[in-house]
């Protein structure tokens, strides 16, 4: 099978409907086993044929009727329309053209990996193809065994396209419809079918048949039991069989026999015959039924009229009123409408009931091939292009984004604009443009921004560390690891020794476990490392006098009570309160918020722990601080990056790049200027040499070289034939500074690039249609002509239609037979019945010969027409003396005495009777 027809089959097999941008996969809920295996081509591209919703798109069914497959409920997995194949079907994968340079492979995955998309770490055995593929490749049949298989896209680098739908669910089914390998499917008495959710094909029998392979005929269905008897199927191995249970008075295998013996008139309209000494049977006359032939039957009941004929009664049975196109008593004859040769221009005629269909030669069309085809009628232009007919050719005007003779190709912007998707992104052509498919973690039109460094460097924080992205759409990915408490280091790669030197504070005892430790704290301390001194003053049962200050002591749950200072209260500055510590015999200041120090003179540095971000400077205040933001940031904590890109003026050919306090525009190739608003005229630097014409394209230029030059900038002087400048098999001849192409027949031009229109010289004769071809032409001859140029009036006599040694005369598209005597009709095939005029008279029998007849006459007649009576006695057959009398068919002789015999030819010997007595000698005389 050619690729073209394989693709055609694909188009039929995978017909897709696109509704509001969604792909709905076309589904047959029940499929019949095909005898011939199919070739399926799957286009492996994210651009088409990708469905998402399990029910409404991929399997195209109503959610309400799908209770049977509750497992997949609510699944929305973008995927290539799932396939159902027969065991033995072949599968080809055609890889996305945009990605061809990247190469790709498929990998066989589990159902879970299919649903969640595979991550990494595949074995060579899971690869569907031995190496990276480009173009069309066949999947080895070993991957297509019975069952459901899941394939997903695998790339050496770049983004995982599985998430975009590049994954495929293939279910391969076998059939259980044949009793033995060569037996017909379902014994020819049923269909081999599979519902979409069934795992295999099995037989569905026609009525009257049953059994796994429809091999059993159900005898009872033929209603063999008469007279309301009931029928029971017998399942003996002896074969198909049944048993009738007869009502009273009836017996016999089919309950047709009646108890008793024949009496006169027992059977009303039929003959009675005794079957056994106790039973009889009525054999009914035509048209009667019933056990006693009492019932006039309905001759139309058996539906004798075929092909839609309408049955009507009459005395002798029925007549059929046949529909047009049918004849015969039962409308069984299909009139051959092709006999009138309705197809023109040598189309082939196929007879249909009361109709014909003509299969036309190329370039003809119409029901009777009567019209020359307008090439646009074949709808050659794809993708909504407009077709413009030009005599026998056509031109397609493509919609934006398409190209190719039939607008079948999506313009390859990735290559045309030399798009470089950064950071392992893949460039994908979309209609009218391109898009970069970014590797995980990257974003931006060209994948230039890091969006999530944790995706870019997966698993970079070891030992359960949590990765935190810090990239904030910069070009460099940044992340930090938040380690679990047993680990430390930039990537949490350093393990903390569980009972290291000073794990427990304040005299806590360390108890080491395998991967962690616990501190047993002394009284008055708590916390994981006993780092918290419990404030004894917080307990309700302290007994300090009113106005006194409770102060926690650093060991144990001990406290001391300080009474307010008496007299000199100015000791504590900045609003601090003064207390006297009797134990230490000195004053103690309790400072107002924001102050500290022995006498509350020190301003607490609130910047010690601050939340200023993005390199802001912290300015300390009293019990507060202020963040002084660097340029480009704002907010209390300078947490807002002032995005100078919002409302930027970059043109559609540039993307904005945010800097600290301004922005710049990065231009796509081919544009320049502060806002990428100027299309670079690459021709302005006159790059094309040697008199070439420069064409400014987006991002680059193209040189059309003057004759004799080549190369990107036409800088290479072509001065010899080494470059093989001659096309279409032309031979190159070197001249000084020049060359000459000697073109093969059918081509002309400096490089033999012009294909000659061989039809121009009107080579086709006798009104034939000319079609140009490479180096040749085809003439489509009108009926009756043949030959390369239709110059030969086809000799229809060679068909040998003239029969009976007639002479054939050739006419234009016809012939004539000159019949020898005795033959008639166009082909002289009918022998003229010369007896038709009943030429033989007097009961003579006529024999039809070729061109003549012969009469065999009854006795007594003669002549060509038996017209003459034969006067038999004229020849005196009875001898002279006897009397002759003509009779019908002969004569009678009345013999003279002494003679006997039919013709009186015998003389009687009278002596024989011994008439002479006493020794006398007898002498015989006449009479
Ligand atoms: C794959 O297709 C089969 C039917 O061919 C279906 O039963 C199954 O649920 C599908 N699997 C997934 C994960 O969609
Ligand atoms: C019974 O009916 C079957 C089927 O109609 C027929 O073939 C068979 O000859 C009948 N047998 C007798 C004994 O009438
Ligand atoms: C083709 O044209 C029809 C009618 O104008 C429109 O509905 C359809 O979306 C077009 N299809 C494409 C692929 O552009
Ligand atoms: C209070 O501290 C003293 C030592 O200063 C100590 O001996 C005593 O046990 C502590 N009391 C409590 C209840 O911890
Ligand atoms: C950048 O943004 C800031 C605040 O939005 C603004 O004050 C400054 O003028 C902008 N700079 C430019 C070059 O637009
Ligand atoms: C045709 O002619 C040949 C010889 O002249 C003769 O043998 C043959 O019988 C003829 N056939 C018919 C159908 O007359």
TrEMBL record:
Check the record and name the CDD domains matching this protein. EGF_CA (cd00054)
PROSITE patterns found in the cross-reference section: ASX_HYDROXYL (PS00010), EGF_1 (PS00022), EGF_2 (PS01186), EGF_3 (PS50026), EGF_CA (PS01187)
Q: Which residues form a coiled coil?
A: none
The UniProt entry's GO CC annotations, sorted and at most eight, read: cell periphery; cell projection; cytoskeleton; extracellular region; membrane
Main localisation: other
What UniProt keywords are attached to this protein's entry? Cell projection, Cytoplasm, Cytoskeleton, Developmental protein, Differentiation, Disulfide bond, EGF-like domain, Glycoprotein, Membrane, Notch signaling pathway, Repeat, Secreted, Signal, Transmembrane, Transmembrane helix, Ubl conjugation
Question: Which protein are we looking at?
Answer: EGF-like domain-containing protein
Source organism: Athene cunicularia
């Amino acid at each position: 099978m050619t690729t073209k027809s394989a693709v055609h089959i694909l188009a039929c097999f995978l017909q897709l409907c696109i509704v509001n941008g969604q792909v709905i996969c076309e589904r047959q809920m029940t499929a019949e086993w095909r005898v011939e295996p199919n070739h399926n081509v799957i286009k492996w591209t994210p651009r088409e044929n990708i469905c998402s919703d399990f029910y409404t798109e991929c399997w195209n069914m109503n959610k309400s009727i799908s209770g049977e497959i509750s497992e997949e409920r609510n699944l929305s997995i973008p995927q290539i329309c799932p396939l159902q194949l027969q065991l033995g079907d072949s599968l080809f994968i055609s890889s996305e053209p945009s990605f061809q340079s990247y190469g790709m492979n498929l990998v066989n995955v589990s159902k879970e990996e299919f649903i969640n998309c595979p991550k990494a770490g595949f074995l060579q055995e899971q690869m569907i193809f031995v190496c990276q593929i480009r173009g069309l490749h066949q999947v080895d049949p070993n991957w297509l065994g019975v069952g459901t298989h899941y394939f997903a896209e695998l790339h050496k680098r770049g983004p995982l396209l599985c998430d975009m739908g590049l994954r495929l669910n293939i279910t391969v089914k076998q059939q259980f419809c044949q009793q033995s390998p060569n037996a017909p499917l379902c014994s020819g008495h049923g269909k081999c079918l599979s519902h979409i959710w069934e795992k295999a094909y099995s037989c569905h029998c026609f009525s009257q048949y049953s059994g796994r392979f429809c091999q059993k005929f159900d005898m009872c269905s033929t209603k063999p039991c008469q007279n309301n008897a009931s029928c029971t199927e017998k399942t003996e191995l002896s074969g198909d069989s049944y048993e009738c249970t007869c009502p009273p008075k009836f017996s016999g295998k089919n309950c047709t026999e009646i108890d008793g013996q024949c009496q006169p008139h027992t059977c009303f309209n039929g003959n009675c015959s005794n079957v056994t000494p106790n039973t009889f049977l009525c054999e009914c006359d035509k048209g009667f039924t019933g056990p006693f032939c009492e019932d006039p039957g309905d001759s139309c009941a058996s539906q004798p009229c075929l092909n839609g004929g309408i049955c009507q009664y009459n005395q002798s049975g029925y007549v059929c009123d046949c529909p047009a196109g049918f004849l015969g008593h039962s409308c069984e004859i299909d009139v051959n409408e092709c006999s009138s040769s309705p197809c023109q221009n040598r189309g082939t005629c196929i007879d249909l009931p009361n109709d014909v269909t003509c299969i036309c030669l190329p370039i003809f069309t119409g029901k009777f091939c009567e019209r020359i085809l307008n090439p646009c009628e074949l709808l050659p232009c794809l993708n909504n292009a407009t077709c413009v007919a030009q005599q026998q050719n056509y031109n397609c005007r493509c919609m934006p984004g398409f190209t190719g003779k039939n607008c079948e190709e999506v313009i390859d912007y990735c290559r045309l604009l030399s798009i470089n998707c950064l950071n392992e992104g893949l460039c994908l052509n979309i209609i009218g443009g391109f898009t970069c498919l970014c590797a995980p973690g990257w974003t931006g039109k060209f994948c230039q921004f890091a969006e999530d460094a944790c995706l870019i460097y997966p698993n970079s924080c070891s030992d359960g560390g949590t990765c935190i992205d810090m990239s904030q759409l910069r070009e460099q990915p940044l992340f930090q690891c938040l380690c679990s408490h047993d680990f430390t280091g930039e990537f949490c790669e350093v393990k903390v020794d569980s009972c290291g030197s000073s794990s427990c504070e304040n005299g806590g005892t360390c108890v080491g476990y395998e991967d962690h430790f616990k501190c047993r704290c002394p009284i008055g301390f708590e916390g994981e490392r006993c780092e918290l001194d419990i404030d004894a003053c917080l307990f309700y049962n302290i007994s300090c006098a009113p106005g006194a200050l409770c102060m926690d002591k650093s060991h144990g749950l001990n406290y001391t009570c300080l009474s307010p200072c008496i007299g000199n209260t100015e000791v504590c500055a900045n609003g601090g309160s003064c207390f006297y510590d009797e134990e230490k015999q000195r004053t103690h200041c309790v400072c107002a918020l924001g102050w500290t120090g022995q006498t509350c003179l020190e301003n607490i540095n609130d910047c010690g722990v601050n939340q200023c971000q993005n390199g802001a400077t912290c300015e300390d205040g009293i019990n507060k601080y202020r963040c002084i933001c660097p340029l480009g940031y704002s907010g209390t904590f300078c947490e807002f990056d002032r995005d100078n890109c919002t409302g930027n003026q970059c043109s559609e050919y540039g993307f904005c790049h945010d800097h600290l306090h301004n922005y710049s525009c990065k231009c796509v190739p081919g544009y320049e200027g502060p806002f990428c608003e100027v299309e670079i005229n690459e021709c302005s630097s006159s790059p094309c040499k040697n008199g070439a014409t420069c064409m400014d394209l987006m991002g680059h230029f193209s040189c059309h070289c003057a004759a004799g030059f080549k190369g990107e900038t036409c800088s290479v002087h072509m001065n010899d034939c080494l470059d093989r400048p001659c096309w279409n098999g032309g031979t190159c001849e070197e001249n000084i500074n020049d060359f000459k192409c000697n073109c093969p027949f059918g081509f002309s031009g400096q490089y033999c690039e012009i294909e000659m229109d061989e039809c121009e010289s009107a080579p086709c004769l006798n009104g034939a249609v000319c079609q140009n071809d490479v180096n040749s032409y085809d003439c489509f001859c009108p009926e009756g002509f043949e030959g390369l140029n239709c110059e030969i009036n086809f000799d229809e006599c060679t068909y040998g239609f003239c029969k009976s040694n007639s002479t054939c005369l050739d006419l234009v598209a016809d012939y004539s037979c000159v019949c020898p005597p005795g033959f008639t009709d166009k082909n002289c095939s009918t022998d003229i019945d010369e007896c038709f005029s009943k030429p033989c008279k007097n009961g003579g029998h006529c024999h039809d010969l070729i061109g003549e007849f012969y009469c065999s006459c009854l006795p007594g007649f003669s002549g060509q027409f038996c017209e003459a009576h034969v006067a038999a006695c004229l020849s005196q057959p009875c001898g002279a003396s006897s009397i002759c009398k003509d009779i019908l068919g002969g004569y009678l002789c009345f013999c003279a005495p002494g003679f006997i015999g039919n013709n009186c030819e015998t003389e009687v010997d009278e002596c024989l009777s011994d008439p002479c007595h006493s020794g006398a000698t007898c002498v015989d005389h006449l009479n």
